Amino acid sequence: MKKNLIISLLGVLFTIFFVETNAQCTITADAYPTTVCVGDPVTLTSAGACGYLMYNDFNNGTPGAGWVATTGVDFSNPCNPTADGTIYLWMGSAVPIPRTLTTIDFNVDGACEISFDMKYAIQSQSSPCEGIDEYNEGVSLQYSVNAGGTWVDIAYFQPDGVILTTNPGTSGTCISSPYITPFTSWDTYTFPVPLAAQTPSTRFRWIQLDYSSQSNDHWGLDNIEIVCPSNVQISWDHGPTVFDPPTVYPTGDTTYVVTILDTVSGQWATDSVFIDVKPIPTSDFTVESPICTDELSTIEYTGTGSSASTFNWLFSGGTIVSGSGPGPYELQWPVGGLMYISLEVTDSGCTSPVTYDSVLVYTAPNVDFLADVQDGCEPLDVQFTDNSFPAGSIWDWSFGDGNTSADQNPFHTYSNAGLYDVTLIVQTAEGCDDTLTMSNYIEVYPSPVANISADPTETTIVSPEIDFSSTSTNVNTWYWEFGDGTNSSDPPVVTHEYTTDGLFTVWLYVESANGCRDSAYVNVEILAEPYFYNIITPNGDGRNDTYTVENGERLHNQLTVFNRWGKKIFEAIDYDNSWDGGDFADGTYYVIYLYGNELENEYHGTVTIIRGM
Q: Structure pTM?
């Protein structure tokens, strides 16, 4: 009940602190608000006076000398004691309507205050402690300046806990369960005496004009006092500084002391109010910038807020990868541009100025490329095309075979068979890069190696068969073209018989299982049948000077010449048409001519030497 609550005529509530009283001076220090941030304004107020005009605590069990109370008033503390355990006045179930307590006339010609303790019983409790519930059943504080002829409201205590300037007379409107309001506990209420009531003869009363029944709507009063100022001086101080209220701007926790002094009697009193000053946090932070869209920016808080602070971050378009509260944060921006960050920090109700910063985000390339062919036979020529976006300024190709290129769209030849990974690293002018590796992107098939041989490479039309063979590798199919309009698909050895003489180019085309091809060729010649001349005239005129076998010089042959008696007079292997008859006499001689690869063909004839022609 010693907690004081100063209330103006408009019903504004101020927090009241413990009052230290010296002699008959009292002073109460107030502040609004009592918890502030650095630099915020605080309004200091005080209420006090020196000398009591009146004090009535009902401890003698009567309304007070000359005071008038409605019959049936109770002084037995029927509804629990006050905070100090002393006697109070109770308007209980024995008191009819109107329930009133009226003072005698007082000289309140000056800035006086009237103060009292009051309590409403709680609704639905047992009588005589049954509480006020309807809005028109509350208690009014009034004054009269004409000996009670007319009364004027100072305040009306509406049962819902609201103090009004007058009774609205609202019946039927009730407070709600559980029926606990600010008025259902003892508390102290203080009002300045209105200017119109400041006369040498003013009386006061507390009046309840309506109730549900005499057994309902009970209430009580205690510790009524009127305090009026004399020749007083009120001053505020904090340390050596004297303040002139109402406004101060504390920068740290501060106790402000107010002193009231009666300059005539020397009586004085003090009170103090403590202002809890909270520091304003800062919202500084650092940002990693610039970054690429595929990178993370680290944002770190460097301000002074505590871990209990509230952090209001704004990341324009950013995706939070990690971080909460003060951070640090890892953020990524999916698109390029200038991105903004702001932070506001609130700590113990104090809010920092907003800090702004930005992150410059460059667009990282999205690497993509294409090859005009992805598989083929060795050697394989490949044209690569860079399709990355946005365009880069530096390219680093790795073809997988140990070769590289810095061209944007390189041409590369794969010389050896195999599977090759292709990697492209693209870097933009801003330094952003991306890498793409295509695994087993290029497949180079081994090509077959064609070769061809002929046995023999020359023969006659008499023996026109030639054996062709190949030791080609990695071959799935063979295709022969014999140069005479015929062909064959037999692998890898084939015999061909020519039907005409001549020079023929024979081609062999081979193909692997993957469609890779190679070719080789060989020239063969089919010689015409030898033609034998049977007369020589070795006279040096350049005609028929030697024994000539036409078409025979290019054949493997053996020439043997006999005289008429069967004696061998000349023999030559691979005869070259150079025999001129030697020293032998004119006449007819016998000739045996063997020819062919195995000398399997044989000719018998004669040759006649005639020198005189």
A: 0.50
